[in-house]
Amino acid sequence: MKILLLDTSGPVCGVAVASDGDLVYESWMNNKMTHSQKIMPMVDAALRMLDLDITEIDAYAAVIGPGSFTGVRIGVATVKGLAEARQKPCIEVDALEALARNAGAFTGTVCPILDARAGQVYGAAFRAPTFERLLPDQALKLEEFLSGLESCGGPYLFVGDGIKAHRAGIEAKLGADALFAAPDYAQLRPGCAIMLAVEKLAAGDVKTADALLPLYLRAPQAERERAARLAAEKA
């Protein structure tokens, strides 16, 4: 079974291919948010390098978020189109769960965090190295998220683009218990994401193209601003 995974959910634009449970191709770049221009050329390059035709792909996977609203929509829409055209199953991959797999052999609480702006993070927590989920995906102020980690126990390994924006706040709250992934392990890797897709396919956890949907933890900014404006008008 061959799986093609696309990730445009955040700063990284990535493609991975798995064949019979093994990662056979991974390509990713972090160079401006122009994923709509880059993702299909990256897919074409992957197929050429593997001497594969698109008809040989058995299932399609997408990192469905949380993340950039526009980025998530690009990846999900592209996978939906590829799968629908060939009547192939789709696999959802949670961005935070995939990020957690960067922890490797670390033992403790791994905390994937993405910068959600406005002082918020998209975050979750997992017990490594088993990756048992400890906290659900949430969109919270950094202080609220860090307070929720107290029940998980340290040490805490942070991964994700939220490190850059929030490292000082994390260190102020958690001190020496806070550890941070090296830059080459801090970003979401499509190779980690596709191995989650392999597990889901083996478990039969697949969807039709119509049922593949983005994962948003909060309303888009335009909707939030509209809601605030309407509330102000009623006040």
**What Rg is obtained from the alpha carbons, in whole angstroms?**
18 Å
**Structure annotation, total helices:** 8
> What distance lies between the first and last C-alpha atoms, to the nearest angstrom?
58 Å
For this structure, what is the CATH class of the largest domain?
Answer: Alpha Beta
Quickly count the domains.
Answer: 2
Low-confidence segments, given as residue ranges, are none
Tell me the CATH architecture of the largest domain.
2-Layer Sandwich
Shape: globular
Q: Which homologous superfamily in CATH is the superfamily of the largest domain? A: ATPase, nucleotide binding domain
**Share of β-strand residues:** 25-35%
CATH topology of the largest domain: Nucleotidyltransferase, domain 5
| Helix vs. strand class | alpha/beta
The total strand number stands at 10
Strand order of the largest sheet: 3-2-1-4-5
Please give the oligomerization state of what you see: single chain
What portion of residues is helical? 25-40%
Quickly list its features.
235 residues; alpha/beta; Nucleotidyltransferase, domain 5; five-stranded mixed beta sheet; 38% helix
Write up what this structure looks like.
The chain is α/β, with parallel strands linked by helices and 235 residues long. The protein is 38% helix and 29% strand. It is built from 8 helices and 10 strands. The chain has helices spanning 35-49, 69-86, 95-100, 142-148, 162-174, 183-186, 190-202, 221-234; strands at residues 2-7, 13-19, 22-29, 59-65, 90-94, 108-117, 120-128, 132-141, 156-159, 178-180.
